[in-house]
Structure formats: structure tokens, C-alpha cells
Inverse folding.
């Protein structure tokens, strides 16, 4: 019969192994997702809706695409910035798996990511205003109608 003293540590190791495996798979999924997002049909970056909120969601696909292309061309969000984003994802994974876990280290990585997102929001807002400025009165009215409709219907992505 198994000794109860040895059964508990084995169960604990199995649980820890399962949690570690799940975390590693999640990190791999995030890294693959970041790597693939720029290759999927020329769509705007995933952070796009976060940066523009309901207005970004109500834009016509061609307007969203144009703003997304402008974001990719912007020097503040260029290739260096993409590399930084990948490095931040890696830093989050490292902070999450550190032993002993340091909430302060995770907080520092997340604060850095929040600063980066602030830059994305500023650039996205500038590009949105420029795109809307190019619209006719009728196009702006249609955009306003889509925003109101999304609000009424409670639509979200």
C-alpha cells in the first residue's frame, strides 16, 4: 500500500506540472498570436479596437484598414516597437514563472506595457481624426449612426 506521505508530494508535483504545462501553452499561444497578427489579411492590429473603442468598431472596413496601415507605418510604432512588444510578452512569461514569484516584477512589466499602449492610443487617435477629417458630411453622419446603433444593440467584439 502506498505511503500517504509519498502520495501527497506526487499529487502536488502532478498538479504543478499540469499548471506549468498550461501556462507554457498559453505563453506559446500568445507568442504565436503576436507573430501571426501582422500576417492575417492586412487587418488592423488587434490593439486597434482597444485604442479607438466603439468608434474604431463602427468604422467601415476600408477606414479601419487605412488607419491600421497608417499605424504600421508610424515611426513610433515601427518594427522596433513590434520587437519591444514581443520582448514584453517574454518578460511577462518570465515574471509569471519566476520562483519565487515577485508581484513587483510582474507589475513593472505590465506598467511598461501600459505605457506602450498609451503611445498606440495616441497614434490611433491622431490617425482616426485625420481619416474622419477626409470624410464627407454624409460619411461622418453614417459613422455617427453606426456608433449609435452599436450602443443601442450593445454590440461588442
Amino acid at each position: 500500500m502506498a505511503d500517504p506521505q509519498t502520495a501527497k508530494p506526487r499529487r502536488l508535483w502532478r498538479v504543478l506540472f499540469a499548471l506549468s504545462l498550461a501556462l507554457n501553452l498559453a505563453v506559446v499561444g500568445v507568442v504565436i498570436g503576436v507573430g501571426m497578427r501582422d500576417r492575417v489579411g492586412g487587418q488592423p492590429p488587434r490593439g486597434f479596437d482597444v485604442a479607438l473603442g466603439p468608434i474604431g468598431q463602427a468604422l467601415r472596413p476600408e477606414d479601419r484598414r487605412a488607419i491600421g496601415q497608417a499605424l504600421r507605418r508610424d515611426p513610433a510604432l515601427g518594427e522596433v516597437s513590434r520587437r519591444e512588444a514581443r520582448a514584453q510578452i517574454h518578460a511577462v512569461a518570465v515574471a509569471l514563472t519566476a520562483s519565487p514569484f515577485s508581484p513587483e516584477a510582474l507589475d513593472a512589466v505590465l506598467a511598461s506595457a501600459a505605457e506602450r499602449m498609451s503611445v498606440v492610443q495616441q497614434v490611433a487617435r491622431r490617425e482616426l481624426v485625420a481619416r474622419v477629417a477626409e470624410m464627407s458630411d454624409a460619411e461622418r453622419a453614417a459613422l455617427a449612426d453606426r456608433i449609435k446603433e452599436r450602443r443601442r444593440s450593445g454590440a461588442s467584439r
